[in-house]
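Notes to self after the call with IL:
- keep both proteins in one doc
- input above output, always
- annotate only the second one for now

Protein 1:
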Amino acid sequence: MKQEQGSVDDTQFSDMITLSHGSGGKAMRELVEQEIVAAFENPLLTPLEDQARIPLNLLTDFGDRLAFTTDSFVVDPLFFPGGDIGSLAVNGTVNDLAMGGAQPLYLTCGFIIEEGLSLETFRQIVASMRRAADKANVAIVSGDTKVVHRGAADKIFINTSGVGVIPRDVDIRANRAEPGDVVIVNGWVGDHGAAIVTARNELDVKASIASDCRPLTLEVQALQKVCPDIHCLRDATRGGLVTVLNEFAQSSQVRVVLEQSSIPVRPEVRGLCELLGFDPLYLANEGKFVAIVPKVYANDCLAVLKRIEGAEHAAIIGKIEDVDQKHPKPVVTMKTPFGSERMLDMLIGDQLPRIC
């Protein structure tokens, strides 16, 4: 973990983060060693160099291309049913790697901490990150810590970057959707966004909805075994299901046609959305992906997903068609149970800010 120089502050409050913990001095060294390295301990992190030194053979043994991603997490509140900012930061980055068909291997972690955050809260977040990393079979190997004045941040922000390796012959891209392909989602949609709404307690809404925050590597690997040619794959985070499908439609210059009755939405999530005026198809998810696969593999993909915990409600929700005279531009449309067809465009903004 790199240690940056900064201002020195009184360290009399041993139960909370102070500016001294970001100063590059003794207090910071103790925070890094006692709270971070001790939690994430592994041979690549322990030397505390300014970079992780990874032998190349550890990478080339898995495939022939590196996948690299970075993401920042500012979710409010820090803790919510089904997860917290720590597990979200690990799983979110792991899943971004997995969506390219990569095997996630290593993460870095950057903390921006507001002065006054309790050490107990920080320990809970770090411990949650370690549990999530262990579950996803990745190592946190490098990082950075900064402390800012009160009011300059909101408790804690986390950046995670990840490195993975894409196996040979895997070619998953947003521009590969073809007419005749089918659209698969690996379970209930909208859970994470709905969980954040209820956790904020701003609208006095009572509902027992938990986030779907979890790693998706095993599900992607299961798909790859039964479908050697996955065309498109992406996790439906900010902007939800519809945003991902619009991105695929535009990249591939095709039309995505959904069946509303086939899209799995929890009754609790549907009810919450009806009450608050949200659309669950635009709510964020943290454990759901959208896959576009050739029709010949669709049933096998669905069957293998349904055997995995967390993906029991996977469903085929639509198909890919070519643009035509009625729809000359790439769009996403949805057939309703009443026989009508509804266009689903991207939102200008987001229904819910700071959901990840």
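Protein 2 (the one to annotate):
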Amino acid sequence: MDMKTSPLALLKNPSLFKTDALVNGQWLAGTKRFDVMDPATGRKLADVANLGPA
């Protein structure tokens, strides 16, 4: 992802944008991820952790 052309580039503090999952106070990356798309453009914004109920 190119942060210069992404809407995420407009974030005032990009360090607050997390793509891992917060579970029980811990950030977990998980073994699987899925894409999050910008509905306005259809472009990929990020890939995020895909965790199941376990």
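Annotation: The chain has a mean pLDDT of 87. The radius of gyration is 13 Å.
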